[in-house]
Amino acid sequence: QVQLVESGGGLVKPGGSLRLSCTASGFIFSDYYLSWIRQAPGKGLEWVSYIRSSNSATYYVDSVKGRFTISRDNTKNSLFLQMNSLRAEDTALYFCARADCGGDCSPHFFDSWGPGTQVTVSS
Amino acid sequence: SYVLTQPPSVSVAPGQTARIACAGNNIGSKSVHWYQQKPGQAPLLVIYYDADRPSVIPERFSGSNSGNTATLTISRVEAGDEADYYCQVWDTPNDHPVFGTGTKVTVL
């Protein structure tokens, strides 16, 4: 079955960096778009970034542009999120999620999610 | 950017029907998807393309979409349906997903 497992979260000071990883199994990783979605404590879901499968084109929410970088390694079935210049407002549970398609299709929804990894930005 | 608005909370007695609205400008022209999130868990897709259900989701969950409002309906509500529910669309012009504000369903 499809499985996504995030890692790399932790406590970091403002201005610091973290690299999140998401390891996938149970499907052909290179065939799908993948995304990072976060949830601040007691708040709703916020899309952060996604990466296409075909050309690895990347997309970001405005609040993280220039600070976060999404990437993927199809040989290792892994998705990454490099987070630099972290701020208190980046504190959240970060989910890795699989979009419903890949290649040249237009994605619509997320059919599988990992359990999440907690990122806390505090001095 | 496209905005989706949901009521913060909905309360329903066991065995009754819960309806959760998701409001957006001309949302009827978009495909709407719904997620259930229980405390401490990842979101779970319960409805996609307005009204389709993944095979693991009970028939009690249904969806509709027209005009400026999409609706998730939970029939014969059970205690295990207590959760937060989020609607979601893909904002095609800006090429990214948008989530609704979320609705907490409480089973009385």
List keywords for this structure.
heterodimer; A: 123 residues; mainly beta; seven-stranded mixed β-sheet; B: 108 residues; six-stranded mixed β-sheet; three-stranded antiparallel β-sheet; globular
SSE inventory with pairings:
The complex is a heterodimer of chains A (123) and B (108).
Chain A: E1 3-7, E2 10-12, E3 18-25, E4 34-39, E5 45-51, E6 58-60, E7 68-73, E8 78-83, E9 92-99, E10 110-113, E11 117-121
Parallel strand pairs in A: 2-11
Antiparallel strand pairs in A: 1-3, 3-8, 4-5, 4-9, 5-6, 7-8, 9-10, 9-11
Chain B: E1 9-12, E2 18-23, E3 33-37, E4 44-47, E5 61-66, E6 69-74, E7 83-91, E8 96-99, E9 103-107
Parallel strand pairs in B: 1-9
Antiparallel strand pairs in B: 2-6, 3-4, 3-7, 5-6, 7-8, 7-9
What features would you describe in this structure?
The complex is a heterodimer of chains A (123) and B (108). The mean pLDDT of chain A is 96. Chain A contains no helices and eleven strands. The radius of gyration of chain A is 14 Å and the shape is globular. Chain A has strands at 3-7, 10-12, 18-25, 34-39, 45-51, 58-60, 68-73, 78-83, 92-99, 110-113, 117-121. In chain A, β5 and β6 form a beta hairpin. Chain A has 123 residues and is mainly β. Chain B is mainly β and 108 residues long. Helices cover 0% and strands 45% of the residues of chain B. Chain B has strands spanning 9-12, 18-23, 33-37, 44-47, 61-66, 69-74, 83-91, 96-99, 103-107. In chain B, the strands form two sheets. In chain B, strands 1, 3, 4, 7, 8 and 9 form a six-stranded mixed β-sheet that branches. Chain B has a three-stranded antiparallel β-sheet with strand order 2-6-5, with no helix packed on it. In chain B, a hairpin with a 6-residue loop joins β3 (33-37) and β4. Chain B is globular. The interface between A and B is medium-sized, with 21 and 25 residues.
